[in-house]
Write a structure and sequence with these properties.
Elements (H helix, E strand, L loop, with lengths): L1 H39 L2 H27 L1 E2 L13 H10 L9 E4 L4 H18 L8 E4 L8 H13 L21
Parallel strand pairs: 1-2, 2-3
Length: 184
Amino acid sequence: MRWTRTLLSALLVLPLLGSVASADWYSFWERSKLDFHRNTSWPHPFQEQEREAVRAPFRTMVNKGWQVEHTLTDWYFNQETQQLTPAGEMRLRYLLSTPEQRRAVFVLQAPSREMTAIRVDSVQQSIARLQPEGQLPPVYETQLSPHVWPGSNIDLLSRKFYAGQPAPKLQAGSGGGAGGGSGN
């Protein structure tokens, strides 16, 4: 009787276990198929993401380089009036000749907000005067200052370099006669 009851309950539970097992079996093969295809095509789905991850820092460096190149610093402005100096006008003329997608002007922030506003206004007026047609390039404030050396330091370095150069001299010949003749 006990055997019969156990056998009967096992027969009733077995179909339920079979449906769960077959569902797991089906998902196992689907997952195996997916893993197989991922492994066989491995680098290709991820190459674009990897390339973008490698290129992003370089793109950032290029953008920062353009920003530094297009920054009008303190020496392009008159210290009392904060208006562009003639050197600043020449620099601005150069900046307006750069490629259109990079044609933006950055103004280094002055010690006060009012001085910075005067600088930006002076640059915008000069741009409108130098480039009367077309869309005017944007003018941004920046805190990123280019790393520069005074010209006197560069000149001193060059003079010391050339002063330390040895005098030029020709190498001594190896002896022998004049070569190259045919003997006639």
